[in-house]
Amino acid sequence: MPASRRAAPSTRSKKANSTTAAAKAAAPAKTAEQIAQEEHDALVTSASKLIHAVTYSPVAEVKRLLKEGAPTWYQEESMGWNCLHFAAERGDADIVKACLASGAVWNAMDFLGRTPGDISLSINDEKSYIMIRNEGIRTEMLHHVLQAAKGDESMEEEDNTEGANPTKTEGQTSDKPGESSTSHMTSTGITLRHEDKTSAGDNLEFMRSKLVWEMGDDGKERVCDADGNGVMMGWEEPLMKEHVRLMCNAHPKMQEGATEGLNILNIGYGLGIIDDMFQGLTPRPISHTVIEGHPDVIQHIKKRGFDQKPGVRILEGRWQDWCKDDKLEDLLKGTEESGGGFDVVFIDTFAEGYEELKDFFDVLPNILASPESVFSFWNGLGATNPTIYDVASNLAELHLDDVGMKTEWHDVIVDESVAEATWKGIKRKYWDLRVYKLPIATMNI
């Protein structure tokens, strides 16, 4: 190209670039708060787009936004719904599946305490509900596997450092009845019980609390702790009656013409409702062992004279104190003439969560007498929310299967009279469902 036709360098362009660079250099740096706000706004925008797509768009658009990283955990401000709540309300199982696959929280509660599964139940969308429930079961099973692995690693570390520090630390065993023999891991899984150091959330704290026996506004007896929490309440009596009927009536020792009674173990006396029912069986129990750790309840038992009934044994302490290897021989005393072991085992403790119940499952093979033996428990885990209650019940069935127990569930309708009067004066309402899922577990042989 001839020199005369070449384009001359643009002085104006250089000046413009120089001005822009100077402006950028002069602009003040963003503060950490500004950066955080921009990131927050971007997340809210992304989450809002996802919620809109979940509500109105095809599943392909939902998957595109999820792939781009739209946050599934975000709960909008008007109702507290996350994307899974909206997917459940829409009733599109493919969108529900996509949200779950991208980490949507199955048990996120809105401002009214409703989970996405509850929304599916409210519109009779069984397919989406089962999908959400099964994700809850899968998540919680994985959680427990990881917790068990973590526990094994901790034990190995303790073995490797044994003798290095003679000082007693949290988590070591204690010979004192009523003291914890294991340290508690903080759960990141199912929201059945938050970490709680009050008497309602910590069994050891409960053992130190003062209990009161009183009549509720519903005309039924109840026992409460000093904080006003219902430890056991009279409205449970029909449920306990069903427990006794289903546990005992089918046992060979309770068939017509039988003369030998059952060997019974109950953990947690409470109001004594179920123990009085056990005592009313025909034939009477050969042995009736009650493990009870609260001193006020033990005093109440003695005041009633229950400990003087034929065949009754009161073992003072927590079940953790008695259901361990060096105490099993003492626990099983009185059952030897029938071959050793219990025919019926029931547990209903206060201020213990699912982790403790699962630990008790591991004890069952060591204390049950035969394949005909029956185990049951008060099933009140997560019993203020139907989806969480369903997940917890299925989780218990799977963990019982792990120790060789098969479980049958019996739905018992809770009387509608268990209403406002029942809970008046009670700090925490621990039941809010119409159906009680009653477990009956036997050896899987």
TrEMBL record:
This is Uncharacterized protein. It comes from Naganishia onofrii. It comes from the Eukaryota.
